[in-house]
Amino acid sequence: FRILGIFRNDQFIIPQAQDYLQSGDDVYILVEREKLPRFLAVFGIKSEPLGKIVIAGGGNVGLYLAQGILREMPDVSLKVIENNRERARFLAETLEGVVVLHGNVIDLNVLKEAKVSHSDMLVSVTNDDAANILSSLLGKNLGVPRVTTLVSNMMYPKFLPSLGVDSILNPGFITISTILNHIRRGSIRTAHVLQGQVGEIFEANVPSDSKLIGER
Which of 74, 79, 78, 73 is nearest to 101 (CA)? Predict the structure, then answer.
């Protein structure tokens, strides 16, 4: 694998031969797909198949996520927790084969009723950062091996990993990347914004008349 960039103490570093990784670094890495499980093991991440997923929050993000999981991972057992009764009823009617629970995602009894302790992953995607963080921490405390949290305020992610949150999603970066994919024309296939908006990663096709051809 190749380490493309290091985000350390709010600074983005393009690593040179003399640089070393340090504890707490966020890293951008290029690795072949078939070597990914072995690579993740180096970082202590077990690439195990997911059997049971609980989604905390049934808004648009939760709905689209659930639909994506049903489409891409049909064998997964899926539950959704939603605080609004009418929305919960709508989700139950819309998501075939999904258990929808009406309740507050930060209510310990609701999380226990959802049996999050027996799930493989908890994804908190309400429209409230604090609720997402707290439900993730409660889930971790109940024994969920993997938790993912959606946060809009980028002040939060700095301390979340130390509390046990495994991965953090920022809708702003996702939205920017999605917009860039539509704005970039020509040979640019996809574009992704790096953490801290320090740069972008492009996937591009080299046209036959490009000045890059033949260059090292």
Answer: 79
Distance CA 197, CA 212 (A): 26
CA angle 113, 118, 121 (to 5 degrees): 100
- What's the pLDDT score for residue 86? 96
- Rounded to a whole number of angstroms, the CA Rg of the chain reads 20
**Cα–Cα distance measured from residue 191 to residue 201, given in angstroms and rounded to the nearest whole number:** 6
Confidence of residue 9 (pLDDT cuts 50, 70, 90): confident
> Residue 1: which of 18, 12, 11, 15 has the closest Cα?
15
Q: Which whole-number Å values give the CA distances from 167 to 42, 122, 149, 182, 203, in the listed order?
A: 17, 11, 6, 26, 23
Mean pLDDT, residues 175-189 taken together: 65
Average the pLDDT over 13-34 and give the result. 90
CA-closest candidate to residue 205, choices 184, 179, 187, 183:
187
CA–centroid distance for 116 within its chain: 18
Gap between the Cα atoms of 94 and 114, Å rounded:
19
pLDDT for position 99: 94
